[in-house]
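Researcher: Here's the sequence for the chain we discussed earlier.
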Amino acid sequence: MRGDIAEHLVLRSLTPTYPLAAKQLAAKTGLTSSNVRAALKRLKKKGFVDSNGPKDPFLLRENRWQLTEEGKKVRDRKPLDLADFN
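Model: Thanks. This is the structure I predict for it:
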């Protein structure tokens, strides 16, 4: 899958207030866990997501992810411009 499409799906599935684990994002988006983790890594590098949310008590070793303010601005644009992901 193209990375920018995976990033788009992950970005659209996150909120700034309710962190999700990568496995939850995979289930929500239909992407594989490896595609979600790769997309999260790229989105974090761009400053759109952060993994500093609380740990999931059922997935003790896995970070939970949420949007940053910048990520929220990008997500809320209508329509979302895939150029943001390049």
